[in-house]
Amino acid sequence: FTSQSFYPTEAGPFGKLQPGMAPLERHKGDITMIANLTNAGASDPHGGSTSYLTGANVQGTPGKRFHNSVSCDLVAGEHLGRDLRYSSLVLASKETDPGGHGKGLSLAWNKEGKPVSGVRGPVELYARLFGQAAESAEERELRLVKKRSILDIVRADARSLEGKVSRLDRDKLKEYFQSVREVEIGLLKEKQWASRPKPRTDLPEPPPGMEGEAEIKLTYKLIALALQTRSTAVVSYRQPVASVLRSMGMAFDPHALSHYGGSETRTIASQQRDRKTTELLAHFIDVLKATREVDGSSLFDNCILSWGTNLRSGHMIRNVPAIVAGGGARDIKPGRHVVLKKEDTPLSNLWLTLLQQAGVPARSFGGSTGVLSELLA
Fold first, then answer.
1. Can you list the alpha helix ranges (DSSP code H) found in the chain?
2. Are the beta carbons of 101 and 310 closer than 8 angstroms?
3. Which end of the chain is more exposed for a tag (fewer CB within 10 A), N or C?
4. How far apart are alpha carbons 35 and 9 in whole angstroms?
5. For residues 166-183, average pLDDT
6. How far apart are CA 268 and CA 290, in angstroms?
């Protein structure tokens, strides 16, 4: 984001929003922007997304290989979504090149610090939420039994190696067993829900090939439906950037556009992109406010929405932008720009604060040092 056209200039209640945030004017009483948050695990500006939701030091100690830790969306899903069809929904970017901003196509990482591939695009997401299986109950049971038997064979073969490999390889086997365990848990949940049909929707199946702004807006609608139908309680979304720029008629790739210093053309393009992203965010808030719960309240009244990025402006990875909205964060007073007293406050403190606001009994998360008391004042 270009600081001159995006960030508020003063702490406290919002006045007139900067041009980059102007599309949020109709919602400014319902959002909170937070300054002085830094992702301590993002030592490389090209890899900030890797640890954005984990807060882990992904570089590790000198001489050690890359590692990560579990992301906050999966922590929340394990608690909030254990009785739902999907503990959490991980939405990935369809863009095969993330633009040089981190490993993986989603923002989610499992307990072993391995990337979660995620659902790629609205067609796949629609099928996940509303696609009704054509197989019979007997065929479904046979398929699940076959999958479990294959896992049993894989586990037995892997265990036979435990005493024959080096310590480093045993660590890899441990990670592998965790992955197998996650597949087993997924199969168990699939079996539990196998006899229950997925919800119906009047929304037509999306056509293939959607991208850019149209893809994102449809994804927002599907996210709202996923929450409304209680298919899940937690969604993370690594929103595409390159296709949005293309839909705006720009030839820049996201990484090149972040090098806008000294270029008037790229600076203007960056400002236009800023405005487009907040325009999309404002649209998503519109969708959440328009989607009704069974008691007549809106999804927005009951959800917690966190929006942000791993970069501030140029290649700066300190003081990254963060916006929080939604009535689910009962103790957070909206309508203001909160400047935290301590510079480089860990981004993990925000995730810990939001986990607790969502009712997750977390005492710490990642490299957190405590909750953001300024948000709760």
1. 72-80, 122-130, 137-159, 167-193, 212-228, 242-247, 254-258, 264-290, 299-302, 347-357
2. yes
3. C
4. 11
5. 60
6. 33
In three-state secondary structure terms, 347 is: helix
CA distance 112 to 271: 38
Residue 261, C-beta contacts closer than 8 angstroms, at least 6 positions apart: 267, 314
**Residue 319 · residue 343 · CB < 8 Å:** yes
Predicted confidence (pLDDT) per residue in 16-52, tens digit: 999 999 999 999 999 999 999 999 877 776 777 889 9
The DSSP line for 88-150 is -EEEE-S-SS--SS-SSSSS-B-TTSPBP--EESHHHHHHHHHPPP-S-HHHHHHHHHHHHHH
Q: Which two tokens stand for residue 219?
A: 């994804």
CA distance 69 to 71: 7
Rounded alpha-carbon distances, angstroms, from residue 81 to 23, 75, 163, 217 = 33, 10, 37, 24
- Sheet containing strand 12-13, edge to edge, reads 12-13, 336-339, 31-35, 322-325, 305-308
Amino acid 100: pLDDT: 45
CA angle 269–272–273, rounded 5-degree value: 90
Most confident segment among 57-66, 185-194, 358-367: 358-367
3-state DSSP helix/strand/coil % of the chain, to nearest 5:
40, 10, 50
